[in-house]
Design brief:
alpha+beta, about 525 residues, D-Maltodextrin-Binding Protein, domain 2, five-stranded mixed beta sheet, three-stranded antiparallel beta sheet
Length: about 525
């Protein structure tokens, strides 16, 4: 039987039904039109009655409103049908309609910022740290929800744990509805287990064994590309993907931004990682691996290729891989390459550090330009708590797009490459409800691992930290140039002399204002840690 990740999944209540506007048998065109007219009139009457009752007993919903919801990415092919079903159901309840708008992933950040800054007609919008939730909240981009939620969405306000509301506050105010589905994006080294077993290589669960795995595959398959490592521009801590492997060493509470790190056991004690012997030795490891050919000598001009391992182009991934990724890879290659098997050696098995994503990871905000923030939070409540609406917008139509097998697993009924609505086809990250979620059988491994993580998980310190660099913005910009020019080649191991390269980097960083940055950042971090106690 399937194991739920947080609460029991009541499958008996998960049957989705389309509204029966027409009879089962054939009808004449005039009869169908008559039935449709009667149905429309009935729906309008019910909407009016609901509005009149609501005016008398609660929030005023007498005015019909059309809400706009903006998401990042691409919508599903059958989305309009699903939205039509949603609108039919919400009309009598909140006297509103909803329309989803998708940016596509191309230039998503630019489109997102423009939508908020231009006063575009939007009532709900996806929020996340990578979309600058904290800074946008401080700048007044969203409506504060502290008063709106208890009045217009009391059930939703009660559903979300109090700790989640506290975690997403900015300057003491709530600006987003956090997703309550808890994810564990614990990193690790993803590898081809079938190759590890075929060539009798060590399980790559340590730095030494990862090296042995790469060398073993290289010896047996000399033409095989090992990894597709790439630069990570604009980041002030790690600027080359292969550095992710060092997480098995780093028992840190943060990410060493500006070189400042803190042990997870002592988050209030920062130290300068960039000035440490540890940093020098780890950069020597990167040079060793670069010299051994574990990644291309032109890696600093490479781009991330998410499909490289699925296509057999590479056989190892040092950064960005999680148990979710393993499930995805195994599912994607099961038919074309049934002999391939992907696995992950978790870095946390060495570091001992496991924590869930922060509640701010996926959320729903109400843009300040919304003229109907009250109705927007009412819709957010319907989206998260109404099981039909939640599952329609997550999985499509049961019996057409998907089914649920005897063990409770989600089963797609269409080819996912051409499906009118694949699983989570509307990119429902922000309204995942653990009570209503359906998972494919391929997710059994991930579900099992999540349950293990839950038992040992600690606090996600870094996820809730809100840096304000306005006081050192000039120095930060200068440091960014130094990081790209001097730190990135160090991280990629593409330097002749590591110790000399470290010395040069630190000298240039100091000239850029690193000491000022570290001093002011340190105070912010320590104040934040103190606020959690």
């Amino acid at each position: 039987m399937k194991k739920n990740m947080s609460k029991a999944l009541a499958l008996s209540a998960a049957v989705l039904m389309m509204f029966g506007l027409f009879g089962c048998g054939p009808v004449s065109q005039s009869t169908a039109q008559s039935n449709q007219t009667t149905s429309s009139q009935s729906a309008a009457t019910e909407t009016q009655k609901a509005a009149e009752t609501q005016v008398a007993t609660g929030p005023d919903i007498s005015e019909r409103v059309d809400l706009q919801f903006m998401m990042i990415g691409d919508g599903a092919k059958d989305m309009d049908r699903i939205v039509g079903m949603v609108n039919e159901k919400i009309a009598p309840k909140i006297n509103a309609t909803i329309k989803w708008n998708y940016t596509t992933f191309t230039d998503a950040m630019q489109k997102y910022n423009l939508a908020l800054s231009s006063g575009q007609n939007l009532d709900l919008i996806y929020t996340a740290p990578f979309l600058n939730y904290f800074s946008l909240s401080k700048s007044g981009a969203f409506h504060a929800l502290d008063d709106l939620l208890p009045e217009y969405a009391p059930d939703l306000y009660e559903f979300v744990p109090e700790g989640y509301w506290k975690a997403v506050k900015v300057n003491g105010k709530i600006y987003t509805v956090p997703c309550t589905y808890k994810q564990y994006l614990v990193g690790g080294f993803i590898y081809r287990k079938d190759l590890q077993e075929k060539f009798n290589l060590p399980v790559p669960d340590s730095i030494e064994n990862i090296e042995a795995y790469f060398l073993g595959v290289k010896q047996n398959m000399p033409e095989q590309l090992l990894t597709n490592e790439f630069p990570m521009a604009g980041i002030y801590q790690f600027n080359f993907s292969a550095i992710g492997v060092l997480d098995m060493y780093h028992d840190w509470a943060n990410t060493a931004i500006y070189g400042l790190a803190a042990r997870y056991s002592e988050p209030d004690k920062l130290f300068d990682y960039w000035a440490s012997d540890e940093f020098v030795e780890e950069m020597k490891l990167m040079k060793r691996w670069a010299d051994l050919g574990f990644w291309s000598r032109s890696a600093l001009s490479s781009v991330e290729d998410m499909s490289a391992m699925q296509n057999g182009k590479t056989i190892g991934r040092l950064f960005g891989g999680t148990v979710n990724t393993v499930s995805e890879y195994n599912a994607a290659t099961a038919e074309a390459h049934p002999d391939w098997k992907f696995d992950i050696a978790l870095y946390s098995d060495n570091s001992g550090i496991v924590y869930p994503t922060h509640p701010i990871q996926d959320g729903i905000g109400i843009p300040i330009a919304s003229k109907h923030p009250d109705r927007a939070v009412m819709f957010a409540q319907e989206l998260l708590l109404d099981q039909e609406i939640n599952q329609w917008t997550s999985y499509g139509i049961k019996g057409e797009h998907y089914d649920v097998d005897a063990d409770g697993w989600y089963v797609p009924l269409q080819d996912p490459t051409v499906s009118g609505f694949s699983r989570e086809g509307m990119l429902c990250w922000a309204w995942r409800n653990p009570d209503y979620m359906l998972f494919p059988k391929e997710d059994a491994y991930r579900i099992e691992m999540y349950e293990k993580f839950e038992k040992v998980a600690g606090v996600n310190y870094i996820g809730g930290f809100q840096e304000d660099y306005s006081a050192y913005q000039t120095e930060r910009a200068a440091l960014g140039t130094v990081v790209t020019q001097y730190l990135q080649p160090l991280h990629a191991g593409l330097v002749d002399d590591v110790e000399q390269a470290v010395a040069t980097f630190l000298e240039q960083a100091k000239l850029a204002g690193l000491e000022t940055i570290q001093q002011q950042y340190s105070q912010q971090w320590l104040d934040y840690i103190k606020s959690l106690q």
